[in-house]
## 1
Amino acid sequence: MAIGNNGIARWNGLGTGNEQTESEVRTLERVIFHIDVNSAFLSWEAVYRLHVLGDTHDLREIPSAVAGDVKKRHGIILARSIPAKRYGVRTGDMISEATKLCPTLKLVPPHYDLYATSSKAFMKILREFSPCVEQYSIDEAFCDMSETIALYGTPVVAANLIRERIKEELGFTVNIGVSSNKLLAKMASDFTKPDRVHTLFPDEVPRKMWPLPVGDLFFVGRATKKKLKNLGINTIGDLAQTEVSILSSHLKKHGELIHDFANGIDVSLVSSQTVANKGYGNSTTIAFDVEDAITAKLVLLGLSETVAARLREDNMLARVVAVDIVDYEFNRCSHQMTLYEATNGTSEIYQAACKLFDQLWNQAPIRHLGVHTSKVEEDSGMRQLNLFDMEKNEKLAALDKAIDSIRDRYGADSVMRASFVGSKIYHMSGGIPPEKRKVNYKDVKF
């Protein structure tokens, strides 16, 4: 490696063992990695079962999947092994569909505490290689290696060091995409899997990216893909070479964006700063069809508990509350209202949710309910004076604060409203239920 007169790192590419040797000398101002855990939930389950529970079967080597609970109607595939993928099993498939494709498919339940712990360990290693790590999801991240790449020689060498370190210390594999911007790094990490390092520098785009189906391009979803197909655009290369004006006329600004992406252009930066929430919400799929308002409002109360608690934890207030309903035939409807003043109080959010529900529900059996908030702002401690509700709201705020304190210390189930006693509805609805948070393998068959 050498440093040019302009201070920009220049290096000769080295062989990687799983990526073609870079023959030319590259000059880059930025070096960006995208690191993606291979079949994350399933890999983390496999590692835990092998190294902690002593299982003799590696879930990654057989047709297997992490899936929700059919009885509670969360019956979809959350992650699947590569052998399961060969049968056509896809993430998001219903369990019934997946088992038709692969009758021998081994299904295991999700355990999110394990996944959170594994993710933290994964991110910790990445931060040892770069001070600028942007966690993109629980199982993937971007690393800006521009300031630290000189410590390792070449980008490919550094990427392989990270890949091997994660495999050796944590037991699971990752794919790493290497490029000069986030888009190309992410595209590269999706090339051949698992346990690979791939480069996709701008000069490699025509050879490596343009032949791919247009639906493989980041930000080209099903609807956009269909519109592009109707225009005769089938590959990323077709998109890259299409006039921007044609794309703009059919797709507006989105057409310009994906045209840039198809040409490998992306100016977004890796940011280690956590982006503030624009809204807080939670929803739940109910284990049975809800046919009465009393039960539905009990679900809304549980959702309001979790949403309000998250607002208070982040010291935020919400000015808009919304409710959405999905009925037994998967018809969805939603409605929202603006509050008199911004709040993070459980009772105020719940009352608004109930009012919206009464306006919205058409008596059809309910499968799914959600409570969402928006137009959030930081809680400055100041409140709009309301002569009639001021004393009541002060008491409710003190009650919420006391309940939060108890739950923080003794757990979410340490305090429960009396209306939930003996109910089939969990008092802190939405998010991850208790049975999925903690690893409990007593009843699991290996």
## 2
Amino acid sequence: MAEPRIGVCGSHAELSAVAGSIDFAEEAVQRLLVPEQPDAAFTPPDRAALEVLPIPVANIFLPGDLRSTGPAVDLERLRRYARTAFLRARQVGIGIVVYGSGGSRQVDEGFDRGRAEQQFVEALQTVGPPAAEAGITVVVEPLNTAECNLINSVTEGAEAVRAAGHPHVMLLADLYHMLREDEGPDAIERAGDLIRHVHVAEVAERTPPGVAGDDFRPFLCALAGIGYAGDYSLECRWSDQVAQAPPGVAELRRQLASIA
């Protein structure tokens, strides 16, 4: 099996300084693709820059005011937004878009939770067809309860993905959020081949691998057990991203090699 690619979530322009030490940048949809701005506002990196450091993944999908739950849901706006985002994503070489967007899916106090869960599934079903049209896979990112109150575990994410029932809507496993929620590696085993992308950060301060010494190998073994062959991204808090990203990638690579 080929060695997995390990990238870093952040600005492509800034991460290009360490392109030789990381495999890719995971950019932000709202920053790079500006889906609600006219075409003239979309200025992707040139082809040469993308050959040096590709952008196969993008996160920070929806703004908080483009709601996935609650009384202000606008599926037509979501459909337009997604279609533009995904078509622009393909121009850059992005194949996976991460649907975290905690502000969009947060369930308002007093709103019926069952209805919110149904609305989120409907949102996934709305973004599925334009994703298929552009050749994009959308991955649902479970978030810990301090950041969002809907889809807080890989298990809940898998349930939403299965309910959506669209081949271009899949799942992300974020080891930081899993650790924050005390969700074990067995959740990865149960989710199986729904998992298409992985985020990594240490649990205490969301630092990159190697800072606090977190051992991710139980989760990495579970991923190997389901035959996961996708990419890994470091999604961390940084004091100096350019300085910290290469050793963080190297540490995760070391842990992956130790289970091979």
## 3
Amino acid sequence: MSVKTVAILSPGEMGAAVGKVLRESGLEVTTCLEDRSEQTRRRASECGFSIVSDLEELAGSADLILSILVPAEAEKVVRSVARAIAASGGRPTYADCNAVSPHTAGSLEPLVTEAGGTFADAGIIGGPPRKGYAPRFYTSGPGASTLAELDGRGIEVVQVGGESGRASAIKMCYAAMTKGTTALQTALLVAAIRLGVYEDLRDELLASQRPAFDQIERSVTRLPSVAYRWIGEMEEIAATFESVDVTPDFHRGAADVFRLVAGSDMGNEDGSKATGIYDAIKLLADAIDAVHPKNVA
């Protein structure tokens, strides 16, 4: 099919940026903003989205629907959209671009197909598109060729086979490394503060692992704005590993780390209470102290 209209659910940081580059490439981009925040409404307006009244109108008018959400919302949204597809009589391709396990992706597919749509499994590698930079969308499943029509329109699309779940598997393994490493780095620095050796460890890292420490600083100080979104992703990774008899415990622990960040004084949206890596880690150590008083060093 020829894609002319793309619907974005929902225009968060990634979804808005993807929709913006698609619109700039000449496609019509729509969204539904029922029950969405004022910030989301502002993003959609700034990016030039056309706003439809409800999901039924969206499903009936779109050739391709991109679901770009936190993992915990993926099933709820696909069920709502499936009802809208059935009611509208539309035949869109629904691309689940969320960080979910292959099993979760496979469970979403029949919800779409039974409603009359076509399903595409997708996993996004990279940050929001911008001038000179395009994230990669890995895709598989029966709707992969439709999603591939967006290749070169501000994003890269890589097809990885006909079976739904393959694209999600790539995303799970990739994020297991990148975000899982951030969780480990955060945890070890919190442990160092609670053990009373943070300054000594920092000096050693600066002497022997300076590039790594610079990367740790960038990753950890970014956490306030993303930790709440990464909890569910780590849980999906744990489920993915467990399904192939690989220990899920690394990423269950990573989910705990991001849960700590999201629930701490560091976990405000702009991270303003943390002015540097030490402040950020100290806030997390203090959050642990509130529950488990320090008993070392």
